[in-house]
């Protein structure tokens, strides 16, 4: 009841026990007494609040009232509503306790309580620990909930979430190390202890202990798993219970199958009826746990192994290993290894975490087989490992004792999974010094909640050499809560004041603006006096680059700016040492529109940039050492090759494979020392003809498209005998 004061919910079984003896309707002041209100309100306070229509009445637990008393309770509630109109009323009950329209005549609407989402669970855990004065255990539990999908599924129920918090605190920050012990403790609490602690034993004349309820529930669970389903019709459940009751004499003595099923639906907290005549388990975790227990008890090990390749059976098999005795466990683990599949081998390794005792020989066999898979060592191994599924997250090591390559591969695996359980793994690497590791951590931001990832990972990552890519409103807001990043890539339609709010005016060094029609007057960028690198991509309203001449930019990328067909103002930006133009350059010479007075060291051209100019005017940039031409630039003719050959400073050349001439350049390219080629299928013959044109290249890097079939490394080494040749795949 809420008004001038607030109190906890009033259990319906308690309130119904105190009707007004004269009128048959409840006295409002009795409601406070039934709820064990710790304070004594002024005389008549409850009546005054309800009469004024200022009350919120919360009545909990209709399902806790014996069936025979529920009609009287209904009249009792409706009488209270009619006596005090204008207030708000909230009644809670398990959905199977009453008909859907049970209180429809009183103007009540029925709502279903949905499982808590990840953010709600996080808020629940934080508030629980704050209320309990146990903040030191909060972060550990949140990490455990993220890392263990089965545990996080349990926590979506407020009752179970509170139980997990209490169990975690009682064990001083540790949950039972094996899942079987955790689930057994949860079942004991939810099946029996909770009702007994609240004086709820023997409702409707039925009181079953944990073992009897478990025995009945596990048969329903196993039937569902065998059928590959998560729910069954009520008639099937009744048939299964009729068969099971003779082996559970205490339950059979208290009721027949319909009575026992009703009791399990109303009181177990494990079984529920999500729709009329339909039965399912409230938590998939309990379904897997109970079905695994029954399969082991019945000796159905062959059935379990027969489903080892089915991802839906992963947790059933892991829990079966936990429930099994040592000899049975050996059979299961060796059976998994016999499948000879990387995923199933990893499943065997994961199952060891749930096993209390394993024969030493089997233990070494499982670990030895999995050693080639964990940790991954390359990005390709990381991709393959991620395909095994989220359970591999529990197996990932590090960062201690991992090489930089292994650390990068582990982070890549967790990133590719993009699972809630990935976050604790990624957090372990946030202080890593490797650029590849840190780049992977930053690049995977989009797969997670923006603010949570910013708080727990990005805010702790070393930023040297990293660009922060911001792609959404949520990421924009999260960026503002972090210390400013010196290098930001902002992708989307954001006004420039929003852009500036994400940057440190004095510290911003690199800025990419992508697909942003709000970028119009580039003079607004003068507020970033330390900016050195600027990339403008697909910004449709940019009309003039001249304002950039007043800045000290070292690199500029102009990429598909439709409002800038003649590259207006680019020739005035003479501070540049590096320039990228990924759109056509008008006219017949590069020197006509590019900044001739700039000390250009690198020039990158693509997307038709040389369609009309070719490489005419390249000699206007005498300090140029690196020329990069993508496959979507014009094919080079003899005059273009001559420009490359006679350039006095050019030592590095990067080419798209389509630019390799069928018969090689007409003249030798004597100055080229570093050659990078991005090759496609069918280019080997052209490559062999091109190789003699670069006799002094000592560093050759060959990048092949995924559909290409490279020859052996020895073949390419033979083409460039004077060089160190490395072969790569695009994107690797």
The chain-level structural class is alpha/beta
**Major sheet description:** 12 strands, parallel
Shape: elongated
Q: What's the helix count?
A: 29
Tally of DSSP β-strands = 18
Task: Walk me through what this model shows.
By secondary structure, this protein is of the alpha/beta class. Among the domains are: 10-106, no CATH class; 299-370, no CATH class; 374-454, no CATH class. Strands 7-8-9-10-11-12-13-14-15-16-17-18 form a twelve-stranded parallel beta sheet, with helices on one face.
Summarize the topology:
Layout: E1 10-11, H1 12-15, H2 28-34, H3 45-51, E2 56-60, H4 70-83, E3 88-92, H5 118-132, H6 138-147, H7 149-154, H8 158-170, H9 179-197, H10 210-227, E4 231-233, H11 234-244, H12 249-254, H13 257-267, E5 271-272, E6 278-281, H14 284-297, H15 301-306, H16 314-323, H17 326-338, H18 342-352, H19 360-370, H20 379-386, H21 404-417, H22 422-427, H23 435-443, H24 450-456, E7 468-470, H25 473-481, E8 487-491, H26 496-501, E9 510-514, E10 533-537, E11 555-559, E12 578-582, E13 602-605, E14 626-629, H27 638-646, E15 652-656, E16 674-679, H28 684-690, E17 699-704, H29 713-719, E18 724-729
Parallel strand pairs: 1-2, 2-3, 7-8, 8-9, 9-10, 10-11, 11-12, 12-13, 13-14, 14-15, 15-16, 16-17, 17-18
Antiparallel strand pairs: 4-6, 5-6
